[in-house]
C-alpha cells in the first residue's frame, strides 16, 4: 500500500521555530514527529511512502539517506528503511494541500479502485493496541479518521456532517455557531486514489491565481460518487503544528519508546 505525506508546507503556524526546522522534524518526546508517522505506516501495511516536498526540504532527504551511525538509539530508523521504500516528489508551487496530494497521485500508476493512505505529518496519533491502524489492512471501505473536539475548537479543523457513519459534507473551520457537529478530521485519509485524483483535477480546472487548491473541496466532490465512512476512534492525538499541541506532545511522549514487537 502507498502512503502520501504532504511535506511542502511552510509551517507558518509554528514560526519562528519552523523557519529553520521543518515541522515534521520537530521533536515529540525522544523522537522526531515523522518517526511516529512512518512507524504507524508500517503497522498499517504501507510498503511505499511518497513525500511531497519543496525545494527547501533537502533536510528531509538527508535525514534518511545520510549514513546512520551504529548506535542502538537509531535502530528504529534502520527498521523503517528496511520495511518501506521512500520516494520524493518536488511540488512546484505551494498552493494548498490538495495540490500537494494531486502532485503525488499524478505520478502513481494505481490500479482500478486501489486505495492510498494520506497522512498529515503534523498530526501524531497514538494507538498502543494498533487496532485502529490495522483497519487499513482489512477495511474495504474508504474512510477518514475523525475525533470529537470541544465545540470552541471547531474553527481549527475540517468538521464533518454525517448520516449514520457516512460523511455527507466536510466544512472547513466552521464557527461554533455554524458547525454541523463536533467531529473533526484528524489528518488520516484512506481513499480510492484514482477517484480522488479525478476530484482534485476538477478543483484545479477552476483554480484561480493566488488561491489554494483545497483537499476538502475535492473530498466533497468525491462523496458525490462514492461514500466515505467517518471512522471515529478514541485515541491520543497531538497537533504539533500548533504550539499547544507541540508542548502537549512533548509532555505526554517524553518516556514513550517504540515497540518493534508487532
What does this structure look like?
The protein is α/β, with parallel strands linked by helices and 262 residues long. The protein has a single domain, classed as Spore Coat Polysaccharide Biosynthesis Protein SpsA, Chain A (Alpha-Beta Complex), CATH 3.90.550.10. The protein is built from eight helices and 13 strands. The chain has helices at residues 33-43, 58-65, 75-83, 97-105, 135-138, 193-205, 215-225, 243-252, and strands at 2-6, 27-28, 31-32, 48-53, 85-90, 115-119, 123-126, 143-148, 158-163, 166-172, 183-192, 229-232, 236-239. The strands form four sheets. The chain has a seven-stranded mixed beta sheet, sandwiched between helices. Strands 2-3 form a two-stranded antiparallel ribbon. A hairpin with a 2-residue loop joins strand 2 and strand 3 (31-32). Helix 1 (33-43) packs across helix 3, helix 4 packs across helix 6 and helix 6 crosses helix 7 (215-225). It is globular, with a radius of gyration of 18 Å. The mean pLDDT is 84.
Short recap of the structure:
The chain is α/β, with parallel strands linked by helices and 262 residues long. 29% of the residues lie in helices and 26% in strands.
Q: What features would you highlight for this structure?
A:
alpha/beta; Spore Coat Polysaccharide Biosynthesis Protein SpsA, Chain A; 7-stranded mixed beta sheet; two-stranded antiparallel ribbon; 8 helices; 13 strands; globular
Amino acid at each position: 500500500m502507498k502512503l502520501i505525506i504532504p511535506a511542502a508546507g511552510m509551517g507558518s503556524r509554528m514560526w519562528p521555530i519552523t523557519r529553520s526546522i521543518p515541522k515534521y522534524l520537530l521533536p515529540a518526546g525522544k523522537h522526531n514527529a515523522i518517526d511516529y508517522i512512518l512507524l504507524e505506516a508500517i503497522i498499517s501495511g504501507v510498503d511505499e511512502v511518497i513525500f511531497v516536498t519543496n525545494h527547501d526540504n533537502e533536510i528531509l532527504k538527508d535525514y534518511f539517506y545520510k549514513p546512520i551511525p551504529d548506535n542502538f538509539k537509531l535502530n528504529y530508523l534502520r527498521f523503517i528503511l528496511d520495511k518501506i521504500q521512500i520516494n520524493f516528489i518536488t511540488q512546484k508551487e505551494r498552493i494548498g494541500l490538495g495540490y500537494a496530494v494531486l502532485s503525488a497521485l499524478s505520478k502513481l500508476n494505481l490500479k482500478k479502485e486501489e486505495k492510498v493512505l494520506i497522512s498529515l505529518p503534523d498530526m501524531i496519533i497514538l494507538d498502543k493496541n494498533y487496532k485502529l491502524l490495522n483497519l487499513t489492512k482489512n477495511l474495504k471501505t474508504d474512510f477518514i479518521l475523525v475525533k470529537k473536539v470541544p465545540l470552541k475548537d471547531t474553527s481549527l479543523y475540517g468538521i464533518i456532517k454525517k448520516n449514520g457513519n457516512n460523511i455527507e459534507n466536510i466544512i472547513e473551520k466552521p464557527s461554533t455557531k455554524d458547525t454541523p457537529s463536533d467531529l473533526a478530521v484528524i489528518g488520516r485519509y484512506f481513499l480510492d486514489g484514482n477517484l480522488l485524483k479525478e476530484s482534485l483535477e476538477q478543483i484545479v480546472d477552476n483554480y484561480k491565481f493566488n488561491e489554494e487548491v483545497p483537499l476538502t473541496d475535492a473530498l466533497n466532490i468525491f462523496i458525490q460518487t462514492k461514500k466515505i465512512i467517518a471512522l471515529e476512534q478514541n485515541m491520543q492525538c497531538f497537533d504539533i503544528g500548533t504550539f499547544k499541541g507541540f508542548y502537549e506532545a512533548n509532555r505526554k511522549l517524553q518516556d514513550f519508546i517504540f515497540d518493534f514487537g508487532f
